[in-house]
Amino acid sequence: FADLVDAGYVAFEYGGAEVGRRLTNDPDVTSIHVTGSARTYNAIVYGSDQEAERRRVRDERLNPRAISAELGGVTPVIVVPGRWSRADIRFQAEHIVSQKMHNSGFNCVAAQVLVLPDGWEHTQALISEISDVMASLADRPPYYPGSAERCEAAAQQTASTTRFGTDAHRYLVTDLDSSSDSPWFTDEIFGPALAVTTVSGPDVATYLANAVDFANDELAGTLGANLLVDPRTQKRHAAAVEQAVADLRYGTVCINAWVGVAYFMSRCAWGAAPGHTPAEIGSGVGHVHNALMFDEPVKSVVRGPFAPAPRTFLKGDPHVAPKMIYFVTNRQANVVGRKLIDYCAHPSKIRLASIVASAVRG
């Protein structure tokens, strides 16, 4: 950004709450975009004194500036029941853990609640593989303030908690009742912790409708949701799957891909589902990215591969995509990342071929 900084278009300031308070109230600042929590947004708009909550309820703003915000939430991963092979179960376990543990869980759309079909034949095998993947990861310090305490407090709300790691814990909570008011459903943990619950339904269409209702009505936030479905089930129940995508009240819905993928794609409008207000901010208001410049974007939808090549050819879903780079089990992620940057700076066929060669070894 040096050229933009030198030309006076961009400036960076580092600091805590006091620096943020000064910047958001500076008379030369006319508009603000904030990413963080609803508490941060409310402090900017309504203040942080004893009268702040009263002002919020009455929508008496202290800060009159135009403010857009992206504030996260409780991100679901909804699994559609189908016939999965052992390789499918392992791959999707790595996928689910990656959606949680990318950047150690410090992402606004890090997966927090895994929604499984009640009575599904692969439930226990999938949970077992998820546990195995989480156990295999290296400990990483919980750098975000309060993360360790939040995770531990939430984990103590249930007896079905498994802790991984020694110096820094990773958490897997199973057997949560989807009808409860668990903090796992109502509070964004923002850390290395994943919860599992089940939703019932006598068939795929009913289950999906119930899972969508659970996500829409019980989970806090509307930023992003993930849907995992194998190709044969997706073709057999295409109408039910598409109805679920349409009915999920989220700014982004990804099928067989992590919601974070949409964040990396400049064409996707990134932000919460429409309907939040300053007084009830939820996952935020407004959008960023949106390279196609839609005036009022409602939802971005991204579709990815259920399985990597070449195994996917046997599933009737031919493509050549290898294991995705955001997988925490991808052994070439750092190599591919560096090569991608080099390619962006100096594109060439040789560099592109080198990226492909590294990616297929992931």
Question: What does this 3D model show about the protein?
Answer:
This protein starts with a helix and ends with a helix. The chain contains 14 helices and 13 strands. Helices cover 36% and strands 16% of the residues. With 362 residues, it is an alpha/beta fold. It has an 8-stranded mixed sheet with strand order 5-6-7-4-3-8-9-13, with helices on both faces. The protein has 2 domains: 2-70, no CATH class; 75-306, Aldehyde Dehydrogenase, Chain A, domain 2. It is globular and about 60 Å long.
**Would you give the CATH topology of the largest domain?**
Aldehyde Dehydrogenase, Chain A, domain 2
CATH superfamily of the largest domain: Aldehyde Dehydrogenase, Chain A, domain 2
Strand content: 15-25%
Task: Work out the radius of gyration.
Answer: 21 Å
- Amino- and carboxy-terminal Cα gap: 31 Å
Count of helix runs: 14
Order of helices and strands: HHEHHEEHEHHEEHEHEHHEHEEEEHH
Going by helix content, strand content and strand pairing, the class is: alpha/beta
The CATH first-level class of the largest domain comes to Alpha Beta
